[in-house]
């Protein structure tokens, strides 16, 4: 695979569809457009053309995006044609005969990265945007793709360069006798400010990951407390098996739920009791682990089932009295999966609790790579502060901090991330 090739791909959904978008990128893109549609329109202008070399295959809109002002930084072409399976195949066949090849997954985005149109953080944002299912995920991914996190990283890099320059200058001119032995107070203040900024960024990682991955809500309680019925009532679908037989749920089932644009993952768990079989015992073990890892726990108590208190009774636990059509405790959070009573109020309570976990605005810091790089940078800056009188060692610490941030945006050692990242993209992206 080489960027000297001109690549092509269907960038829209699989046909049949109303419209199919075929994307080209590379040095032969303009010539391929001329070959397929005749006169090339002015840059970034849609024009109606007959599509097909010699034989008319379709009629559609075409656009040409000359380098470097294109998504990939290369000459790019888009063909907007009818979404006919046969028509799309015929167009791709003619383009292949002209010398173009089918793109690999994520190859258009990879070329954008290699040509400096995107950094690695923005590429991850684009990947998140393509897979976003909720409004919060869309906002978070778009902010990352648009460069909000990159701007934060660039500010940290600039501060590190200033600090390193101060130390390097002292190292270079220390023998001339005109350099003060102690660093100015402004240097110490800037170093402390950088530590605070990186620490704050790392603290926002938890809320950022929750937006990206979802708020995990464990539905827990004794067997037959109404866990599966509540899952079905909240999701308004029959996704969980409801049975009067105790212990039918053995594994952890995740059910996605969109509440006010935020993803919640409802976890249907085995009932907690002394198990009668090895399979049920494993289900109980997994349930307890899911409860420990959950962001919110709904602990269900039913009037017709012997119940126990949550273990441990933590701040993230909400006690919910189920089967309120049988009994309605005064002053308690009560629901009935049969009549729907209290379901709306419970959803509102989940939204209220969830908002305290995500914050007012989704954090753009949400990936494991972010945590690793920012932790390494913070540790290095803290180390520099501890060795501030040893200029050479402190300067090396700051260099390591800079390198961690450079790796995060892909300016150092990008290959170890690229193949894994781009393989998750669709062919036309």
TrEMBL record:
Domain G, chain residue ranges per copy: 216-305
Cofactor(s), names only, from the UniProt record: K(+)
Residues covered by the GTP-binding protein TrmE N-terminal domain: 6-117
Gene3D superfamilies, sorted: P-loop containing nucleotide triphosphate hydrolases, Probable tRNA modification gtpase trme, domain 1, tRNA modification GTPase MnmE domain 2
Cofactor note: Binds 1 potassium ion per subunit.
Domain MnmE helical residues, every copy: 120-426
InterPro entries referenced in this protein's UniProt entry, alphabetically: GTP-bd, GTP-bd_TrmE_N, GTPase_MnmE, MnmE_dom2, MnmE_helical, P-loop_NTPase, Small_GTP-bd, TrmE/GcvT-like
E.C. number: 3.6.-.-
GO BP terms in the entry: tRNA methylation; tRNA wobble uridine modification
Keywords on record: Cytoplasm, GTP-binding, Hydrolase, Magnesium, Metal-binding, Nucleotide-binding, Potassium, tRNA processing
GO molecular function: GTP binding; GTPase activity; metal ion binding
EC top class, as a word: hydrolase
Localization (cell): Cytoplasm
Residues that coordinate or bind Mg(2+): 228, 249
Binding of GTP, residues: 224-229, 243-249
Function: Exhibits a very high intrinsic GTPase hydrolysis rate. Involved in the addition of a carboxymethylaminomethyl (cmnm) group at the wobble position (U34) of certain tRNAs, forming tRNA-cmnm(5)s(2)U34.
Classification via PANTHER family: TRNA MODIFICATION GTPASE GTPBP3, TRNA MODIFICATION GTPASE GTPBP3, MITOCHONDRIAL
Assembly notes: Homodimer. Heterotetramer of two MnmE and two MnmG subunits.
HAMAP family registered for this protein in UniProt: GTPase_MnmE
Sequence similarity: Belongs to the TRAFAC class TrmE-Era-EngA-EngB-Septin-like GTPase superfamily. TrmE GTPase family.
Protein name per the record: tRNA modification GTPase MnmE
